[in-house]
Each structure stands twice: as structure tokens, then as C-alpha cells.
Amino acid sequence: TAESGPEIREGPVETTDGKHVEVAANLGGTGELTPAVESGADGVGLFRTEFLFLDRETPPTEDEQYDAVTDVLDAFVGDRVVVRTLDIGGDKPVPYLELPEESNPFLGERGIRLSLDRHRDLFETQLRALLRAAASEHGDGLAVMVPLVSTIPELEGALEAVDDVAADLADEGIEHARPELGVMIETPAAVLCADQVAERVEFLSIGTNDLTQYVMAVDRESEALADLHDPLHPPVLRAIRRTVEAGRAEDAWVGMCGEMAGDPDLTELLVGLGLDELSMSAVTVPAVKRRIEETSTDEAEDLAERALEAETRDEVRSLL
Ligand code: PEP
Ligand code: MG
Questions:
Q1: Which of 2, 9, 73, 216 could potentially form a cystine with 289 if both were Cys, beta carbons 3.0 to 4.6 Å apart?
Q2: Centroid of ligand 2 to alpha carbon of 188 (angstroms)
Q3: Which of 258, 251, 279, 287 has the alpha carbon at shortest distance from 82?
Q4: Residue 199 exposure: Cα atoms within 13 Å on the Cβ side
Q5: Which neighbouring-strand residues pair with 181?
Q6: Is 257 a catalytic residue?
Q7: Which residues pair with 144 in a beta bridge?
Q8: ipTM of the complex in this document
């Protein structure tokens, strides 16, 4: 737990040579907000809104979602709070929402695909809540990202939905603002077109849980194949590197919010790969902050260079 681990560090941290890396917390349920604040996190890098839809029989209303988001903004005044739009399907069922029976749910209707089509109504309601929250007292820090994008038209569809909702709110005379917008990079398609994605948004956030699953073609839940679902496989590292380079070229910041970001043994490697932000479960925030403060960017970049040239996961492990 946080109490038995390294000391809690409030405020931003930097490497030994002064490179700032933001350390944010993931929020995946009610009750996680207080630990996130107490962990010394610099903000929220992934607010998984799915939990607002669980343990109930109907979707949350616009006002309920507004309240949930402004609660987080009020707890992280002056910090960035990244909210992910509804990401259901695959490993994330919501019993009362109609999802199709599919033989490969991870390759089916999930993430943004549902939001643009079958559950567009839910998407619009959520965007209304988010655009209103962006205009709330502490709404300046709000950022919104969409999950599981694999095509540019999907991204454009999401951006158009934001514009449409803003126009509706304006017509209705309701206060709203445009939050910072980003995309989760968690499909190989998004990595390969990350330059075109980054041109259109302010940030990219790498979801290594799904990205590893899709790059390695291995179910993220398979126990038998857990060794394959490891982000240290060189192709996954190369996908991360490519995403960082694409973001940099387009002036988009690049973060990571998959499990990989919260492993202190991988912090140096991730700094070396060039991530601007790491977001993780609150309990690992102090340890990762400490690792960043012990890291020299030059050494981290050398490590990353060698890892990117490795041919096996075990070779990468032995470098760490
Ligand atoms: C990921 O895929 O890495 C991610 C952060 O999202 P989730 O685990 O919620 O799918
Ligand atoms: Mg994911």
C-alpha cells in the first residue's frame, strides 16, 4: 500500500537532468478519488467512465455524469483530468445495454465503434455532460479522449459529435467549453497512422493493455498465453516509440495509461522512450515518482535504444 511504500511526493517531479514527466492516477471506480488525491498524483490520466454505468439498471443521466466529472475536477484543481468516453464491449460488459453476441468481442463492437453507432445517444449525453463540465469552476483542466480508434473517419466522427453537441448547447443557451481532446492509441491501426491522428488532437494516450493484445494477437485475459501479453515484447516497444515520435512531430503530448505505466521497474525505459505523462493506479504513484527523480534522461534514452534493438522480450528484461 501507499503507506508502506515510498514517501508520497506532492507536486511535479523531474529527472536528474530536469526533464518533467507528469505522473497521474487512473480512476476506475467510486472510492478511488480520495486515494488518488492522497497518492500525490499530478492529475488524472484516465477516468474510466464505465463505472458510472455499472451496478444500476439504466445509464446515468447527463446531470449525474456532470456531477461525477466536476467532483474529480474539484479534487484536482489546477491539474489535468483526462476523462475517457464510454468504453464498453470486449472485456467491459454493461448488462442492460444491448451489445451484440459476437464470436470475437475484442474484435467487435466496442469503444468508439459503439459510441458512433449503436449507442450514439449515450455518447451525445456524455459529451453534453463533459462540455458543460469544461465550463465549470475548475473545468480548465478537463481533457477528453476516445477509446479504441482505428480509423481517421472514426476520429473525425467523434470530433464532429463534439462540435454538434457544442452547437446544441449554444442553441439552448447552456454554458459549455471545448475541453482538450485526445485519442487512446491502443490498436496497431492507430499506431501506424498516429501522425494523422496527432494532427487532429492535442494529445495521445497509449493503452498498453489493448495495444499489447492487438500487436501480439493474444487475448489480454488469457492465462495460458500471459507471457505473450507482455508490453516488453520488442514490437510493442517499437509501437510505443513510433507513437511518441508521431506525437512530437505534431506537437501533441503523449502519455501512457495502460498497466505498463505503473510498473516502477519500467519507469526508466518509459522515460527513455519519451513519454510525457504516465498514468497508473494510485498505489504506484509514489514509487514511479521516485524512479523518475532517480533517472537520467541520457541513460534512459540509451536503455530505450537498446531495448528497441532487442529481438526478444527476455533480452529486453535482461537490459532492465
Ligand atoms: C488499455 O487498454 O491499456 C487501457 C488503459 O484501457 P482499458 O484497460 O480500460 O481497456
Ligand atoms: Mg483499452
A1: 9
A2: 12
A3: 279
A4: 5
A5: 144
A6: yes
A7: 83, 181
A8: 0.99
